[in-house]
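README, section 4: Worked example with a bound small molecule

Sections 1 through 3 covered apo chains. Here we extend the same pipeline to holo records, where the ligand is supplied as SMILES alongside the sequence. The molecule in this example is flavin-adenine dinucleotide. Nothing else about the input changes; the structure line simply encodes the ligand pose together with the chain.
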Amino acid sequence: MSLNVAIVGSGPAGFYTAEALLKGEGAEVRIDIIDRLAAPFGLIRAGVAPDHQTTKRVAEAFERTALRDEVRYFGNVEVGGKVSLDELREIYDAVVLAVGAPFDHAMNIPGEDKRGVYGSAAFVGWYNGHPDLMSLDPDLDTEAVAVIGVGNVAIDVARVLVKTPQEMTSADLPDHAARAIQAAPITDVYVIGRRGPVEAKFTNVELREMGKLETCDPVVDPAQLPDTIGDGLDDRDARLKARNLETLHEFAERGPGQKAKRVHFVFYASPVEVLGGDRVEGLRLERTRLEDGRAVGTGDYFEIDCGLVVPSIGYRSVAVEGAPFDERACIVPNDDGRVAEGLYAVGWIKRGPSGVIASNRPDGVAVAAHIRADLGAGAKPGREALEKLLAERQVRVVSYADWQKIDAAEVAAATPPAPRRKFVTLKDMLAVLDG
Ligand SMILES: Cc1cc2nc3c(=O)[nH]c(=O)nc-3n(C[C@H](O)[C@H](O)[C@H](O)COP(=O)(O)OP(=O)(O)OC[C@H]3O[C@@H](n4cnc5c(N)ncnc54)[C@H](O)[C@@H]3O)c2cc1C
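The generated complex, written as structure tokens:
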């Protein structure tokens, strides 16, 4: 009997798992990929920056997997909502959790509940057209923005806020976000790190891009840049850090520049309070110094006037009802992806929010191997039982063929070179299907 596997989540981790299961040897496998959204691909659609279309092309490989006879896509089906995890575990031989880490960590500083503070999970979801975040409606009526964090997501946010409409013509920034960002009077974005330039997490391509923008200069204080990266890093890390440091030195040597906008890199600064009334008016920070690689406060404070604060300090998962959850680590506790009998986890829910798209592949490969080793052949009904259950509950399932129609409508509605004009609500997506 074929092995019936349900994968909950259609992001990279879910698709890499499906791909690996299909490649594995042994019993025939049938894979149902279930996502709470109508549109597949998780953060490839809702996280990766709208002007980084090349990165999003990995979805083409995932599409080939989705179109395999053995695979079925169940979009618009929330596990924990329309169907429970316990029900899935009764129906399927194996259930793989690939639900990601969609929420922001709090900064835990006074004032972070003010209007104008939006964590990057929410803010990026908003500008990428995630249906859950359309009501965020951020107030961008400010000249200055503080982005807290020195990883690629922080750089993405800064770049999207300062690029010109011409620089975004090949992007799939949805209409609502394009209108709001292009109307905003933003001239200065501060990208703030608690530690120094060597500890910053951004990759060099993303950092260098900040030096090539049409109307925005990178601003770096040379006094914050060490001459060398120091000792103790492995070769790969050392190369990356050395390149970043070199790029930052180049930026510093250019001086403040003449362009209309600026992205300021501010290192050794820890936010301690968001200032203002109901709305953000500034950010108070404490200068730090490094001790054994950790940032410690110096007791010296300064303020940045800004009307928008975007903490980009990490993502967190939430518990899926019916699965164990480690509240401290914010992951499903697992042994190399094994969670319990017939239950597995991959991607950000398994190991936390780290790494690039391809970092999720090894998770999928490992769990696919475990499923085959643990279960051999299948014993449960799988797909037909899920279809019956969803029909009884009158759930409007969006199939992969449905998604292809929505996708085609998005592509057809775009003004080239923009690749697509995104639908940002379920209602608009279903309207395509209902003619
Ligand atoms: C802002 C941002 C930008 C990034 N940019 C890049 C980049 O440029 N290049 C790069 O290589 N990596 C990038 N990454 C990293 C990359 O996106 C992640 O490594 C990857 O998406 C994690 O995969 P995942 O499958 O674990 O989670 P996700 O991609 O988040 O997928 C999880 C899926 O599960 C679904 N889901 C959640 N809960 C349920 C439920 N209860 N029932 C059904 N479905 C559910 C979600 O709708 C989603 O589709 C970026 C990450 C972020 C946050």
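What to look for in the output: Residues 3-102+317-433 form a domain with the Rossmann fold fold (CATH 3.40.50.720). Residues 8-14, 34-37, 42-43, 47-48, 52, 55, 78-80, 98-100, 102, 124, 153, 156, 315, 320, 347-348, 355-357, 359-360 surround flavin-adenine dinucleotide (CB under 6 Å).

Section 5 describes how to batch many such records.
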